[in-house]
Amino acid sequence: MPRDPEPDWILEQRRIIGNRVRAHRIHANLTQERLRDLSSVERLTIQRIESGATDARIGWLLRIAKAMDIHIRDLLDG
Predict the structure, then answer these.
(1) pLDDT single digits (tens) 8-48
(2) Whole-number pLDDT of residue 34
């Protein structure tokens, strides 16, 4: 059974979270590949999170935040 498309506000929040991940990664002077090594989250997954193309699992965000030595709240609250 096909799922209903996500509402626009969810898609916008995905993009906002992805932008925060990217901004923190760049601020930490990390490539997606290096963040992959530090977080054990696949590079393609990081790319999809940053672009807002996927729902970011809480486990992925926790790993990414820990790898960048920030609190997950920094990715969710801005």
Answers:
(1) 999 999 999 999 999 999 999 999 999 999 999 999 999 99
(2) 98
